[in-house]
Amino acid sequence: MNVLVFKNIFRQPGINPVLYLKQLILICLLLQGCSSGKSEDKESQEATEVNISKSVFGALPDGRSADLYTLKNANGMVVKISNYGGTITYWSAPDKEGKYADITLGCDSLQGYLKGVPYFGALIGRYGNRIANGKFTLEGKAYLLAKNNGVNALHGGIKGFDKVLWEATPVDGEEPQLMLKYISADGEEGYPGTLTTEVTYTLLKDNSLKIEYSAATDKATVVNLTNHAYFNLSGDMSREILDHEVSIKADKFLPVNETLIPTGELKSVSGTVFDFNKSTKIGTGINNLKDQQIVYGKGYDHCWVFSDTSKTLKSVAKVYEPASGRLMEVLTTEPAIQFYSGNFLDGTIKGKGGIVYKHRSGLCLETQHYPDSPNQSGFPSTVLKPGERYNTVTVYKFSAN
Ligand code: GLA
User: Fold this and answer.
1) Which end of the chain is less congested by CB atoms within 10 angstroms, N or C?
2) Across the beta sheet with 177-184, what order do the strands follow?
3) Treating both helix axes as pointing N-terminal to C-terminal, what angle do 2-11 and 17-47 enclose, rounded to 10 degrees?
4) Which DSSP state fits 139?
């Protein structure tokens, strides 16, 4: 039809074909300009695309409002984090078909977390893991902590960092960030010094979530920060994690007593069910009751000490779930990791989507310093003094095969 119109125009008396062609070329050039303008529009649209958004999560008993931040990257990975406890409530990762599904345990609403859950997805502080008999001595002074785990202090006490409201600053970009800050008063839960803690979650382009921890104090104190996400890489939280395959680059682990306090020994994993140097199904050794450590832990609830003692960011552990093909790699600057196989989950908690979290339906890989270090002079120090800065980094990276 265009050709016909063209021929008819040329036949019209008084039309100069050369001039007409010139005008046509001009119109084409202008149109081209418009279309390149269109792609500029697209680019600027992409640049202003929001990769972090905020919504209200709910009200705390004291009336303050907790928020929920949704971070997403270009691949489709989504991580939701509340400033209540710095809690990761949702974390999607791709399977081998590229299908994204939530791979963490948690609650649908703030009320669920307020009812009391075993640290689902939360930030842990001031001291992750146990301190024996809830006490320690530092610079000649004895400190008594809140005991919240039998005779011991666990995960920061009765109201640890998992139960406080953090000040949040979202930073948008291709790799969105949520910066969280909490100032813990001198004496809080029995710990000395005003501790200013900052934790930054960054969702990277390569499907990693980077967690940077930083702290400073005005009095000598002890610090051991971590995150307590429970993973079930199948994406089906009604399933156990016993078929997950774990590898941990550690020649040694810390045997514990019956209250899960390290004995002080660094024991070789060789020839025991604690050897994860080769990728091994969790189910293989978890019920080996001939091993006293499995009896004490009710499964795996121990701290592995990395063979690589460098303080650089290094790959230390992997978890693979064969059915979905999801693979999670853990990198950290920390010297150790608590591998907890969800032994205290007992079917009494209804989680997201009304799913009952039964025994061992989630596993934790908590990067950290050794438990009870404030009482064990042979362990790397967890002391932080005024003028020093506590800095650690942990990355959870997802892929599938
Ligand atoms: C940690 C501990 C476990 C248990 C869980 C929470 O991982 O090592 O013993 O207390 O937290 O239930």
Assistant:
1) N
2) 167-171, 177-184, 195-203, 208-217, 390-400, 326-332, 314-321, 245-248, 280-281
3) 140
4) T
233 CA → ligand 1 middle, Å: 19
**Ligand 1 pocket test target in 130, 300, 359, 364 with most atoms within 8 Å of CB:** 364
150 CB under 6 A from ligand 1? no
Q: Is 344 in the pocket of ligand 1 (CB under 6 A)?
A: yes
49: annotated active-site residue: no
Q: 103 CA to middle of ligand 1, Å?
A: 19
- Residue owning tokens 């609830």: 301
**Residue 366 among the catalytic residues:** yes
pLDDT < 50 regions, the chain:
1-13, 26-45
d(CA 383, CA 21): 82
Beta strands in 6-145 (DSSP E): 52-59, 65-72, 78-82, 88-94, 100-102, 123-124, 130-131, 135-138, 141-144
Q: Give yes or no for residue 188 CB within 6 A of ligand 1.
A: no
Integer Cα distance of 300 and 394 in angstroms: 21
DSSP 381: P
pTM of the model: 0.89
Q: What is the pLDDT of residues 142-196, one digit of tens each?
A: 999 999 999 999 999 999 999 999 999 999 999 999 999 999 999 999 999 999 9
**β-bridge mates for residue 397, sequence order:** 208, 329
Q: Which ranges constitute the DSSP H helices of 192-270?
A: none
| Candidates 155, 228, 244, 302; catalytic one | 228
Could you tell me if the CB of 364 is within 6 A of ligand 1?
A: yes
Q: Would you say the CB of residue 119 lies under 6 angstroms from ligand 1?
A: yes
For residue 102, the number of C-alpha atoms closer than 13 Å in the C-beta half-sphere is 21
pLDDT digits (tens, 9 = 90+) for 69-113: 999 999 999 999 999 999 999 999 999 999 999 999 999 999 999
